[in-house]
Give the backbone structure.
Amino acid sequence: MNAARLLDLYDRVADTPDAIDRLRRFVIDLAVRGKLVEQDPTDEPASELAALIRAVRVVRNSNLPDSWCHTRVGEILDFRYGKGLKVSERMDAGPVPVYGSNGIVGYTDEPLTTRPSVIVGRKGSAGALNKCDRSSWTTDVAYFVEAPRFFDLDFLYLSLVAVDLKHLAKGVKPGLSRSDAYRQTISVPPLAEQHRIVVKVSELVALCDQLEETRAEREDIRDRLTKANLARLTAPDTDEPTFRGHARFAIHALPALTARADQVKYLRQAILSLAVRGKLVEQDPADEPASELLEQIAVKKAQLLK
């Protein structure tokens, strides 16, 4: 996978609302399946990796490179419970970040762990992930997963993103059970390959960020053009020939100016405005004039008041 290939995929889904999210997900999916970078035969073989992991049930997977190991999350990772820390004991700044279920909620002086960790939301934002490459404190609404020596922290984070722990959340106030997380499967490539994968993912995700920024600018222009076009179409002082020209342009540009569902509301408002001003259909000279209709209404109203 390279930048050119990613741009080609983006062209295919560019107009879908979740195009960038789908691309990011695709990149991560390739990363954790050994499809993003080439394998290096000089990397440690699977047998050495398995010995390093020392998991009870490390298995081979035919869909993965030969140098990778595959096992259950619970065999190689420990989701450790966080510990409560009162709000009064937290600081606005300090050496140790304090993590809740979805990010930093303060700072403290003493760490709960000194090792790089991935913080996993347990209650509320269940399954949400945050990465900390230094000492940290995790509160009791989250787990912290210390990176084992056979895992690069960034690759561990990508692997847990791919597991998609959020879909395991249960309950009215969503909660994530360790036992459910432990039953999921995870793959471990050689450490050297993990480093190469992280570099490639960073490169492609940065490209996704650029595409997202460009897309936001494009959609802003589309919004302004849509509003300007429909405002011109519904202007009250437009003569008939000019109105027809505006209407032809609006119909021709309609697919491009209403690509998103939320843009359709502007079109709906314009149609209603034209309808109540007699601009939507042609008038038929055989129709009774409005003056006669008003006279009939006045007669019926007078009869009702007698």
